[in-house]
Amino acid sequence: MKKWIAFLMAIVMIDALAACGTSISAAGPTAISTAEATAESGGVDETAYEAAKACIGEPVAALYAAVGQPESSTYGTSCLVMGAQDGTLTYQGFTVWTIRTENSETVQDVTLLAK
Fold it and tell me: What predicted TM-score, i.e. pTM, was given to this entire model?
């Protein structure tokens, strides 16, 4: 009986981890190198991108002051921090990833996008 309970708990934990994964459709954007993005997108504001990268680890207010508001933003349940949300802030040619808690939102990463 204990083995079955342990087995079921393992399955539930694996399923919970799989639910946290993000899938991007074949038509969706993908992260690429700086050189490729500059060549392909043509619309990347390198100054804004570098300013956004400088905000990694800082509150999102610093990002907004440096590069302005995003074109769009989405939030979902965080797999990294209990009770938090993972944020995706989309700018022209790059995406900023954040973690939002009850009291703050912090910039975690910045990636360039291909069209």
Answer: 0.62
